[in-house]
Amino acid sequence: VQLQASGGGLVQAGGSLRLSCAASGSRFSAYVMAWYRQAPGKQRELVALISSGSSANYADSVKGRFTISRDNAKNTVYLQMNSLKPEDTAVYYCNAQRVGTAFWGQGTQVTVSS
Asked: What's the pLDDT score for residue 91?
């Protein structure tokens, strides 16, 4: 599976962005898809994940502001980010997991100015 993330950019605090991650390969619908982020000097952390059945889980820091979704017909997972805060600034990575395997996208930079 190859993952291509897009949609990052510079936004003011309180603004919104939508990240997309397009996956190549087969059986996309069988993968658990997730978004992680890594801020400078910090460890990579899980932001949100969505199961093959579209059940979603979120980090406490983004609950109520971010929404993860998937379109299996388009092999794409999305992360809608609203009410962005400067502390959301990070490189965001798309991740696909299935049966002991994991794949990573190249990352997309999100910068939130105060």
From this structure: 98
Cβ–Cβ < 8 Å for 26, 46: no
CA angle 9–21–7, rounded 5-degree value: 15
Cβ burial, residue 50 (10 Å; 0-12/13-18/19+): buried
In angstroms, the CA 18 to CA 9 distance is 10
Cα separation, 6 vs 9, whole angstroms: 9
The pLDDT averaged over each successive group of 10 residues in the chain (114 residues) is: 96 98 91 97 97 96 98 97 98 94 95 97
Distance CA 22, CA 4 (A): 5
3-state secondary structure of 20: strand
Question: Which residue in 28, 27, 45 sits closest to 36, CA to CA?
Answer: 45
- C-alpha–C-alpha distance, residues 20 and 92, integer Å: 10
